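Q:
Got a chain?
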Amino acid sequence: MLKFVGTAQAYPAKRDPELRTADFREIADRYADPAGEAQAARCSQCGVPYCSVHCPLHNHIPDWLRLTAEGRLREAYELSNATSTMPEICGRICPQDRLCEGNCVIETAGHGAVTIGAVEKFITDAAWDNGWVEPLVAGTPTGQSVAIVGAGPAGLAAAEHLRGAGHAVHIYDRHDRAGGLLTYGIPGFKLEKPVVMRRIDRLAAGGIVFHQNFEVGRDATLDTLRDRHDAVLIATGVYKPRAIQAAGVEAAGVVDALDYLIASNRQCFGDTVPEFASGVLNAAGKHVVVIGGGDTAMDCVRTAVRQGAASVKCLYRRDRANMPGSQREVANAEEEGVEFVWLAAPEGFAGDPVQSVRVARMRLGAPDASGRRAPEPDPGAAEEMPADLVIKALGFDAEPLPALFGAPDLRVTRWGTVVVDAATMQTSIPGVFAAGDIVRGASLVVWALRDGRDVAAQIARHLHSLDVGARKAA
């Protein structure tokens, strides 16, 4: 260990932009064995592991880095897997620069952070290659069942823990494949789909039952699921796109980010996608403008490049330093030919189908409530920008679940997120729990995994109390 002075920071080499933009494969392979171990050996084994502190899952990062450096990859994987149900997925898509690596002690000392995410991917992919990933084995049957609404990361994490505790688990999801945004929201160049599917296959092999193309409210009410099961978990995520207030926003060719990404991911699965085939959700040959500065916007611009767009621009109303998305993703996008237009916001859309975007130039004013400098229009600095595909990527809000689920007693905040008891994670309806983005708002996959783990423990405690109560009554 402690090799950070003599061994330079090195991430797995990325493929050349011209090559990687020709497909939807991940842009970098994992480390070869000696390189992965050498990078793990850069860890300083500091007394206060800020990497673990700033990881939502509180992974035992210094410990599995040490095991990796010693060549004990199976033990490193098992320790990583002890706190995370999807370590290879977190290794690929977590914004490590804002979490573990951004708080690495040797990063603050100027030596460059330990490449924690790349090492996590390295050891977990090695585990899959070598057959070290064990099947999900259900615990002693309890005779109790749980319904999980939503097959995204929070729901899948909770399902694994609950099945391991011996409960029957049924997952109900509106899509034809499980995984939520892991499957249909995140492009393959960040997360190849076989990586997700093998995790889902493992859960199904462990006895978790998936009900696909199932919408609560259409195929059953929430009360129906409560009658069928001993507990219900709402883990739907947030899917309602935030709107743009600008003239012409309803024009053909102005589309929502998630519709665009789902169509692209379905096309990569080999599905028949009429909206892609017709060109409605296909960037090929078009001048594309993406509005937004988060990770979803980065996914859209990089997808458009791979679809053969004539040009791709990203408009963001603040400057680069204040954008919410990963700086690594911005750098990747720039390498691939995306043009970023900072301090810019749409003022209106011309044509139907859309032909151009009227762009208002912005400047940073006084700080807002969060402390960030609020953008304000810069008078007289508007311009017209050609566009025949505009993608709105301003983030997501909660859908109106009480109305959709036929559950007027389900309490929600003014933003539509579900209100839960802070200690038990139970909603206003007895026996109904909620976790993930539908509680905290649009957030990170790693936080969804943490919430799934936590809510599984609360549901198990609740089911145990029901069982004890039933035995006492008998």
User: Anything to note?
Assistant: The longest strand covers residues 356-367. The mean pLDDT is 95. Residues 8 and 111 are 8 Å apart (CA to CA).
